[in-house]
Amino acid sequence: MSRIAVIGTGYVGLVSGACLADFGNQVTCVDVDQGKIEKLNRGEIPIFEPGLDSVVARTSAAGRLAFTTELPEAVRGAEVIFIAVGTPPAEDGSADLRHVEEAARGIARVMNGYKVIVDKSTVPVGTGRKVMAWIAEELGRRGETFEYDVVSNPEFLREGSAVQDFTHPDRVVIGADRQQGRDAMKEVYRALFLNETPYIETGLETAEMIKYASNAFLAVKITFINEIANLCEKVGANVQEVAKAMGKDGRISSKFLHPGPGYGGSCFPKDTQALARTGRDFGEPLSVIETTIAANERQKARMVQKIDAGMGGVRGKIIAVLGLAFKPNTDDMRDAPSLTICTGLVERGARLRVWDPAAMKEAAWRLESIREHVCFAADEYDAITGADAVVILTEWNQLRNLDLDRVKKAMKGRSFFDLRNVYRGRNVRDFGLNYVGVGQAD
Asked: Is 267 a residue of the active site?
């Protein structure tokens, strides 16, 4: 058992802390937000993540998971300290490391002996060295010479399946300069030995690069199939059949070959921008990544054009938008395609009736700039009632099996835009609806 402190109770910090406690470790999660800590101590989970509430409840009841605002107490009682704070994009696309620096300096001001400090947040290459320098500077001011190791241990959590991803990872990446730090991390993750989880032991910079390279490659793959989908529409091909055949090739695989309105969320947009910025800073521009970023924004805008053209203009029309989160099983709308598409439709004169099973609270402020043109519906059928068109933006399970007869009767118009290709076009057309998917010529 390791004694662990996790600084930050956002998405990564809370999932990591709860799952590490579930591995049998003693974990204290720290946050400066008093209100959030009070809610967590009452068993209230501030994020929407399936299964997380039961892990938090189970480990808290067992006494292995605690929440506090007291950083000194948590740091002094820990052997391993995870930094899991936000690294939002700065205006130039680089990652903002203010919170990482604050956490590192805060640790150094109160540490009382050897510690392993772990960068769990997604950070640019070179951040581990900066953390070392910040800690050394603060220890120097104190006149202390405690030993410490800085480790890069990037997370690979998918929103909506983060608990499963943490407890059954494809690999655990441990980047460190010294074996002492690596050994401490193996003890932290000792429960995973039962699953024979692969460990990738590297240096700091390599571990940091692995995270960015992985996310950037997946973003490229999504953007590639989206552009193939757009071409399929012009040449008369079906992208779903193309993707299926491509995916049978073991060198390619079927994962992330699902065309749609573009990627969004907390990782891909931010990480591709940060990696591209790093490339420019080091004089090695990453043209594939730069192009992917631009193409993804074009894809979102293209969906607005598709809807406008498919309806012969949207001015004065009522459009039901089903799904607002960037993917199912989360309430996250950061850089979600829905933001661009909803705003674009309103700018062209449409009125919207929107619904999402988890993201309505998030949407209330994310869509504030177009609020007077948006009605927040009670459910999917309420959104559809009286609409000239239906637009599916997120592939929630309940949107995969709509009662199409009820949809037709509730709608005023007949346009059905399936921007996630969750339906077969001919099945929807059988109900008298005008189906439009992505990458389907028919």
From this structure: yes
